[in-house]
Amino acid sequence: xxxxxxxxxxxxxxxxxxxxxxxxxxxxxxxxxxxxxxxxxxxxxxxxxxxxxxxxxxxxxxxxxxxxxxxxxxxxxxxxxxxxxxxxxxxxxxxxxxxxxxxxxxxxxxxxxxxxxxxxxxxxxxxxxxxxxxxxxxxxxxxxxxxxxxxxxxxxxxxxxxxxxxxxxxxxxxxxxxxxxxxxxxxxxxxxxxxxxxxxxxxxxxxxxxxxxxxxxxxxxxxxxxxxxxxxxxxxxxxxxxxxxxxxxxxxxxxxxxxxxxxxxxxxxxxxxxxxxxxxxxxxxxxxxxxxxxxxxxxxxxxxxxxxxxxxxxxxxxxxxxxxxxxxxxxxxxxxxxxxxxxxxxxxxxxxxxxxxxxxxxxxxxxxxxxxxxxxxxxxxxxxxxxxxxxxxxxxxxxxxxxxxxxxxxxxxxxxxxxxxxxxxxxxxxxxxxxxxxxxxxxxxxxxxxxxxxxxxxxxxxxxxxxxxxxxxxxxxxxxxxxxxxxxxxxxxxxxxxxxxxxxxxxxxxxxxxxxxxxxxxxxxxxxxxxxxxxxxxxxxxxxxxxxxxxxxxxxxxxxxxxxxxxxxxxxxxxxxxxxxxxxxxxxxxxxxxxxxxxxxxxxxxxxxxxxxxxxxxxxxxxxxxxxxxxxxxxxxxxxxxxxxxxxxxxxxxxxxxxxxxxxxxxxxxxxxxxxxxxxx
Length: 681
Fold this sequence. Notes:
Blueprint: H1 3-34, H2 45-57, H3 66-95, H4 104-131, H5 141-168, H6 177-185, H7 191-215, H8 223-232, H9 265-273, H10 279-283, H11 285-288, H12 295-314, H13 338-342, H14 345-348, H15 356-360, H16 368-382, H17 387-399, H18 413-417, E1 436-439, H19 441-446, H20 448-464, E2 468-469, H21 480-484, H22 488-504, E3 509-512, H23 515-524, E4 533-536, H24 537-546, E5 559-562, H25 576-583, E6 589-590, H26 620-629, E7 635-638, H27 641-653, E8 661-664, H28 665-674
Parallel strand pairs: 1-2, 1-3, 3-4, 5-6, 5-7, 7-8
Helix pairs in contact: 1-7, 1-9, 1-12, 3-4, 3-7, 4-5, 5-6, 5-7, 8-9, 9-12, 20-28, 24-25, 26-27
């Protein structure tokens, strides 16, 4: 039997077995995902493919960190280019002839340049992990094994190319600079020695390639396969919209997610798409202030639990072969509690639902919906939640506000901010004809500081000639806090009551000063029947200033930095309108700090955290206030009553409240439109 035939048989045997092992691992991962609840994926091919092309081939999410993004682009496209080179090399080893490519010299040059770029990229990756020591990157042999795989794979290309040139007696060439350099070192070898060297490099390349193939689906690098699918199948509902629960399902034994298989199959795809890059955790306000929550670890712990439990479940099926690649925890994974055994309650209640993790994730993972699903199980099925959060929800249920103040006092703010009835604030009953419903919200109705925002906005509405009315005591809580804290039952009850009231008065336009109310009305109420245009007050203020209905003419000599609310910015992409208003005011110096726009850090109030005490680490609002103070402002502006409260508390704790004020956009605009003295606010 000739040597070439033996080599061909060995090639088929080794490659076939590797492909079989690869397929076996992928198949089992597929079986684990199938354990989840089926999910309907909307057939929106055009929109999905556009997003897919932008994020997969444009690598847009990775470029949020430009250095890392460029490095990954080099590796991503480098491997695509090198696939032809790998096929060319394999054919040379099997039949002694490469690919019949026109302009083969240029093809060789492209391959060598690509190899050099990938080696440089891997060197930079090693530098970032072990010398620069980025906190978000893990260190150790496991995270680094892929670096060795790729580096040795690239070196095997050069080794094979160099020995091939010596064997064939080909001189140095500018079209193959690296392999020519290598060939020069071994130019004295005999034909037999060079042939042995070539096939050593050839087998080295093949075995590394196949080992990498088997390793990928068992590691975080499974994202190479799952991430593009994950992005393609990502939900197309409005950003940040939570899935609803069918609370009338009499067959349901529990609500929310209490077992790993109660997640949807799409959520499980998220688990296997995680890159473990740590971008989510590095931006998480809870983690960065010393809380237990790490969005990355949340996903990886759920992934590992799914793998262990999935292996235990599928191994009991007679038609599923034994699986050798799943890791098992100590004890039976079938008996491990998801909440308590895998994810702690402390982690779940640390989340502010700011979605900074999701915005940073390069593979389209959604973290917040999983946390809310787990919270729903705690609240609706187990009846478990922190005491202060439970008190806030009970107060909302009984009196319609988190403080438990009488629901009949909801309209008292009108007399307190306008004792002489100069603003002409009327309820929908008193004024049947109006353009906008001003939804005041619990903060504007009961919180003394937030009332000043409502006061300033009403003055501006009157100045602009806008017809509006309020609901008065008929207004109820929007339901954002109950929904984000996991009490879907209370949310749906409030939602139904509010929509019925809106329909009763034929309300078509709603404006609110609260981004949380704005989001839930605009993105989540429509599923339950709301048909109305919903506006945040900064959107309307921007329109009215541009239309000349409001004229900011008085000088406001202040250095202002603007804090982007999570629910206004990342959730609804309202970034420019508040800034446009500030830029229209004479005298203002608008300064940006590093964590702004989509990278803005949460104030710490979202996800119900406004009503719960932080018991671990640094207070989130203090950390955020320190960032805002870094640009030496005289005023910190916001467009959210929650954010304003948290920032004001932060300036007090930092003992700078006399030098730096916290003001809403409406309050600052009112200073310029009316020439109001700052102390009047």
